[in-house]
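Supplementary material to the annual report.
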Amino acid sequence: MEDLSRLCVHTITTRPWSLAEAVEHYARAGVRGVTVWRDVFETVSPKAARRMLADAGLSIVSLCRGGFFPAADAEGRRKSIDDNLRALDQAAEMGAPLVVLVCGAVPGLPLAEARRQIADGIAAVLPAAEARSLRLSVEPLHPMYAADRSAINTLAQANDVVERLNHPNLGVTVDVYHLWWDPDLEQQIARAGRRIFSFHVSDWRVPTRDLLSDRGLPGEGCIPVRQIRSRVEAAGFDGFVEVEIFSDHYWAMDQRFFLDRIIASARAHV
Amino acid sequence: MEDLSRLCVHTITTRPWSLAEAVEHYARAGVRGVTVWRDVFETVSPKAARRMLADAGLSIVSLCRGGFFPAADAEGRRKSIDDNLRALDQAAEMGAPLVVLVCGAVPGLPLAEARRQIADGIAAVLPAAEARSLRLSVEPLHPMYAADRSAINTLAQANDVVERLNHPNLGVTVDVYHLWWDPDLEQQIARAGRRIFSFHVSDWRVPTRDLLSDRGLPGEGCIPVRQIRSRVEAAGFDGFVEVEIFSDHYWAMDQRFFLDRIIASARAHV
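Predicted assembly:
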């Protein structure tokens, strides 16, 4: 993407930076959108975050993340709903239009049961999302996270849940890192259509040294990021392209140089 | 499984042991089948291996592994075919009835192209397998190996290839580690039916510390091994249950204690 007006960066991508630092550097580098991770609220209130972004002319793209609905018992599931309602309040206060859902899984809980609890959890928080004019998106996670992070591991499953609950405020997030391997991806992107509420990019490194924090910049791995982007846009998506990278390697680097590489990678490979 | 008469162990599972050591200890522990990995041929000929197993009263279940068909150029694909033919010769010499195929992938080669090359490669070696009365099985690998080990990542894809090539000597291998997360697994096991030629077990640890060598023993993780086994058998499979574990943790242990744990795990959790 030559034009950076639709480029968004996740605050987690430059984790060593405070929100204030991230906002300052993103704006200076030409990034126009920010997806805020909830850990920033440990030091900045949602309202203060909203002001910071507005003052810098940055759009708030989404809040990451709600979800984690399944639990071993009813008490755990109730706590999860409470936490999701808190996330909705935070999103509303900071003016985020979308809350991304990482749906959750509990080691040992059968996946079919986790999937039922996920659908129930989403249904339980949808009215609160609608009341706040917020959208929710189901983000399928790579199957290597099925044990403990999400029992929704393909776009087909996310589409199934979204179609079943059939609510205008509910859609999906397409993240190339989680979905690139899926032989059914092209079809499922078309099926999701305008229910694609957000789009995340990074790359799959070879070798991948860590299951959680070894993502690459687009162009550094084997994901056809540009091809997937064109499919998502052909399906009707016209929102931000969000760079979401967890990387011990990049977090150890001066984040200003890393941001330069993010920009160069977006221009050349997204 | 209380009855160990269908328990098989892969030589790679107890990698520190020579084939002679493995055969001696497996037989003493009541293991009845062995799947041999080709690295043993660095020190033992297929014929010598055959004798060792026969003398100990052990069945040879399969040879691991052929495959790795995709390559960047025609020369690479030709070499891969040659290597697969060598594997077939080794299997025939050692009396292995089955060669398991890890189908391959090349970082940067589009997955759709890799999948075409895989189908072509299997088609190219099937006549040689038939001539040697050998069976071949397509083993789908977990999506986290899509970049560099196999572009066949679901049982649905394996079934597709096998049905398309439609040859009595071609089937699938079901490995719980690769497939447990798949929402479509039950259906695809039923679809594979008697084309399930082999069945591998291990477990998915939480957390998984390494993408390659951190598998657990059945019971140590979150895979419903016994449930998947019952589905595979309901589909008509009645062969060996094969313990295939790559684990830096277990390879560092005295392999006699590890083998005791394999037996205990098989009895309690398979």
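Chain B touches chain A at residues 107-108, 110-111, 115, 142-144, 146-148, 153-154, 156-157, 180-183, 204, 206-208, 211, 221-222, 224 (CB under 8 Å).
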